[in-house]
Amino acid sequence: MSHPEPETSRTKVFISNIIKSLFAGGLLFWLVKSGGIRPEYLMVAPEHIPGLSAACLIIAAGMSLAALRYVELLKGAGLTIKPGDSFSISAIMYFFTQCVMGSASGDVARYFYTTRITGEGARVGAAIIVDRIIGIMGLFMFGGLGMAFNWSLVEHSPELRIIACPMLGILCLIWLSVLLGFLALVRGRMFGFLAGITFPVLAGLLCISDSGFLGREVGPVLFYAASLSLVAPLIAPEFLETGFVYRRFFKGSKLGEKLGEVVSALLVYRNSTTTVLKIAGLTAVQHLALIYSLYLLSRIQNIPVLPDFNEIFFAAPLSFLAGVIPAPAAGLGVNEAAFETLLYLGSCGTVTAGASIFLMYRIWATLFSLSGLYFVMRSKK
Predict the structure, then answer these.
(1) Rounded Cα distance, 2 and 19, in Å
(2) Buried b (16+ CB within 10 A) or exposed e, 339-367
(3) Half-sphere exposure (CA, 13 Å, Cβ side) for 368?
(4) What are the tens digits of pLDDT across the range 144-184?
(5) Is 74 in contact with 114 (CB distance < 8 Å)?
(6) How much is the pLDDT for 3?
(7) How many Cβ atoms sit within 10 Å of the Cβ of residue 315?
């Protein structure tokens, strides 16, 4: 396998970071010019200080759950780490994620400091990969639930009626494909396929039910997505190093190397179903805590129209998911633009300060993440 020269790699990284920073700056400039971000929207009146304190406590608690989740992740990979060490490593991860160059730099920092304690780089890498997969799948799930539970918002928005069906189909297809593919890897093709048959049946029942637009328009999309996802358990084992697909299309390539890392990481947890479920539960609680903190912040900010919880729950998961796009400082600008747009559509154009709400959340999350700097400095002593 050929690798680029170090200087070439550094140049590419530098250029990539410049482009990302310019992109984030452009989004923030647009949000300021359009009125989505204004200084007065970030002001909090004295009588709202208790509400701000509650929101900050929930943000801090949600971020702290990462440490507990990381202990369980490493345990599933056969490693043991002290809760105190997990907390300090998670704080360092948040510092690099929020203040440096996004989630990738946070994962690199987490890998470095954990490996220094455990000496098991391969297993630590597997734990971090699985953590990212579960986190992203959780956002996919809540993104779909946010639309499904607040379908009245979709029906009252002409724009959302157009994009909601394909978006739900894509979320369903990706989520089910990953789930069924994982089941096929750890329990076999037949188990994954039989488990997956349930979902097209449920979607078919929705199609024939008397549910109006939901059954007439959404049901068929979910049925086709669930049916297509049944391919995943059939071909997932072929992505193993001994599989035909891997050997024919990916062996010896950089993409194949990355694919091998993901599949190997999933296989590390093939006998840790209980651990995976526990991690998924902790991840769900963490996501809900951060979504609720956005709602609390929206109630105490000086914005023209206050969104209700349904609108926040509709917009937040997909906005957090937008931060997965490689961007500096944990998706700076990307999350704000996504939240501004989705909240505007979900409220039929009445809420126009979504970017300021998410920026307020980012400010406090970043302040809490600065605690990681203390642990970085202490580790150098």
Answers:
(1) 26
(2) bbbbbbbbbeeebbbbbbbbbbbbebbbe
(3) 20
(4) 888 888 878 887 788 887 888 888 889 899 999 989 988 88
(5) yes
(6) 38
(7) 31
